[in-house]
Design brief:
This protein is α+β, with helices and mostly antiparallel strands and about 240 residues long. About 40% of the residues lie in helices and about 15% in strands.
Length: about 240
Amino acid sequence: MLDTGSGRTLAHRAEERFLMCSSFKGVLAACVLARIDAGIDRLDSMIHYGRSDLLTSSPVTEAHVEVGRMSVEALCGAILTQSDNAAANLLLARINGPAALTKFARRLGDRTTRFDRTELDLNTASGLLDTTTPAAIVSTVRMIYLGRVLKPTTLTVLERGMIANARGPRRLRGTLPRSWIVGDRTGTSDDYCNDLAFARRPHAAPVVMAAYYEAPGRTTEAREAVLREVGTRIADWAV
């Protein structure tokens, strides 16, 4: 965790690599929105797809498959609020693949985080592929939300999507103070339970945080309980 006002940090194993899983979708949405700011794409541009593009855990794209198209803005909302896997792959293709997302991270000064595969393969550990460190991803999230990476309009799209993340209340934000405005992007696999987040506090500078938890053999519910405990520790430290 980073207190952006004081520069204080709270860290444990922050330089070790962990698989990102769906937490990568927060960076993906930021990359898509940065392209819109640059005039390369538009929020209302339509992306066409069919049933062959659907994957497991793709509730929003599946609901619209008969229509056969969704806007870039709607797909960004789908990956941020519902972690829609098919939407993520459609947007990855839109930006020219995982390598382009890695280049985006490098432009933000992140020399560590790497994006290599698409859904669903990126949820399986394979060496350094699709990994980050908590320290690196916190720095990147800080650049996205508190730097000048996005214009106010596109930043609002990103923030609203992360604040509306359906799974968020079961993880870090579940025990953070209710007065904080928190947006997060979670990630889950058979072994991992992850969360990266930003929080705007009413009378202090924003904080940025990430928790990557590898716990093979534990249920998702048990792992989420650990992240809520981490949230409690963060809240105690931050006040």
